[in-house]
Amino acid sequence: MARNRFFGLTSRVLMLIVAGLLTLSYASIVVNPAKVWFISLAGIFFIPLSILNVFLLLWAIKRRSKSFMIPLLALLPSVFFVGRYIQFDSDEDRIARMSHTGRTIKIISYNVGRFAHDEGEFSSREECMDSVFAFILDQDPDIICLQEFRTSDVDRIRSLIRRRLGDYQASYYLFPTGKGGFGNLTLSRMPVRSKGVIKFEESANLALYTDYTYHGRDFRVYNCHFESYNISMSGLLRAMMSKDSDVFTETGNKMKKSITRRPKQVDQVFSDIENCPLESFVCGDFNDNPMSYTYYRMKKGRKDAFIEAGDGFGATYATMWPLLRIDYVLFPDSFQAVSHEIPRVPYSDHYPVITEIEL
Known about the structure:
The chain is of the alpha+beta class. Helix content is about 40%, strand content about 25%. The chain has eleven helices and 14 strands.
């Protein structure tokens, strides 16, 4: 009898802990992690925490335990958030969207990882770049937002674009390195009305903005790359195998620095959006998941192309597919999404986000 009571008490404590962590993940979308940095960790683990609560719910029901209410109550709000990670697009919805007769614009947002994909697919960065450009041309987009673009010759970037991509106009900002430069690059077939860059303090990340007029509609496109974690997954796994505590400490420090820097960068971009009279698209690598302050802030006044027209898993980070969705195309509420896809191509550790928007 005492053993059963101990087991029952232990199981309830476990349920309360897991349910509490899932509840924290809901709070992570509104709490600024610059003030409470660790709350972002709960948001990162929203999917695993949800799955664990489902398991505990089924286990409690099977045992006919009244404690099933703990994971059940914790899971109820997840109904409103799970669509940020997975969508089921019906044929009827797809046909209805494709029947729209308005003007559309096709956008690609893609973190190309400095063309340094190391899966043995390419013999050089140039070969990887050629494959990326060939893929982009095949998609025939109107606007291209690239993050972690790298070139060995910054002075000849425009001739590079003309040679590889033809009539696309380029807006870019590249941080200089000993072997060229890297940064964000925005390309379009439309004339550029104006452009600018938002630099982030003590960071090699940034946001570009470019203004366009298309069929009488004026709008701005933000091409964002927010603070990265700079964590090597392979190195972290090796540390786990060797039980190297120094690597874990270093990883924790990197995560804390990233988590506390990113909301300041997000607020910079959001402030620019609020002061801009044009409707705004926000594209890029947020380095944050949909249960985050970053996503919540950037999505204000905009729709998420994946939620509106996506199908299947929305994950964009190849290394941890299907768990991590960190790349987005957000568009003004007054526009409509026609299509959305995330091709699983082997050119980067990210997958491209491709969407078509009706203006």
